[in-house]
Every structure is written in C-alpha cells, then in structure tokens.
What we know:
Layout: E1 2-11, E2 21-27, E3 50-51, H1 53-63, E4 67-71, H2 81-89, E5 93-98, E6 110-113, H3 123-128, E7 131-136, H4 141-149, E8 157-162, H5 167-180, E9 184-186, H6 190-194
Parallel strand pairs: 2-4, 4-5, 5-6, 6-7, 7-8, 8-9
Antiparallel strand pairs: 1-2, 1-3
Helix pairs in contact: 1-2
Amino acid sequence: MLPLVEEFYSLQGEGYHTGKAAYFIRLGGCDVGCSWCDSRFSWDPELHPLVETDVLVDRVLHSGADSVVVTGGEPLMWNLDLLCEGLKRNNICTYIETSGAYPVSGKWDWICLSPKKNMPPADKICRIADELKVIIEEKNDLKWAEKYRKMVGKKCHLYLQPEWSRFETIIPEIVDYIRKNTRWRISLQVHKYMHIP
C-alpha cells in the first residue's frame, strides 16, 4: 500500500528525459521541507489514500505507457520494491526522482538525484545516480551543486534548474555559470510553459 497523491500520463517536463511520454506516480510524504516546493500538497501522507501496488501497476498498463516516473514528496520514504517488481515484470521502464535522503528501494532504470540542503543525500545514491538535478534559487546554490558534482559518477548527467519563482532573477547567473562550466546543462520546467501536468 502506497499513499497516492496523484497519477497521470503526460510528458516529462524537466531534466534528461524532457519531452518523453511517461506515467507519473506522485507519492505522499515528505519531511525535507523546501521553502520553494511546488508540491507541498504532497507532504502529509495521511491526507492521501493508500492504494495497493498491484492496482497502480494495472493502471499503468491500461494507460499504454512504457515508462513510469515515481516522484513525491519524497518517494523513498516508502519501500518501492514491489512497485518496481510489478512494473519490470511488464517491461515498464522505472524512473525515480528523489532527494536521496532515504535509502534506495526498488530497481530503477534511471535515478534522478535532486539533493536538498535541509536533508542531504547519502553517499551511496550519489554513486549510482544517472542524473544530478540541482535547483538554483540563489547564486550560492551553485557551490552546493559543485559539491555534489564531485560526488556523483563520471557518467552522471548534470543539470542546473532555476527555481520557478526566481526564474527571471537567477537565469542570467545560471547561463553565465554554464558557459564557464560546460559539464553542466540547464533544465527548464517546460511542462509549466506548456500548461500540462
């Protein structure tokens, strides 16, 4: 049983897989507490119904999707082994977006690590992350991003993403930084521009 905030079939709007179709499963529960979080409605898991893992897998299969993004909240607050097993058994690719503050459960085709200052990620997830996506709210966050760049593997894709409400202010800093530090790329929340979930 997992606390389900919402589920929908849409397009990935940020990071490496931007533009790809995926089924999104947003789980309830998060104690990381970022001040700029755009999904605060997911923080309290008791506000969201518990749904059986098999039911979630069936809904994915009926959607026609070939990949699932599990997000939150902080999805790794929950054991995701059974969810991944059900999806993988049906040849569905599994992606997760996590702060890395909790131990990894489940088998993932893609791990997007988005570290948060309030509850930094464990070293282990840094070593296995496929994508590092750091939210940039102010210029000092670029130092935070570099700290984690040094902790992830050489094949990890590196993204700086402007915090949505500070976009106009911070985007010039990010652009300038990437010109000088070319391993990084920018991630924009294109789903917000397209007005899709």
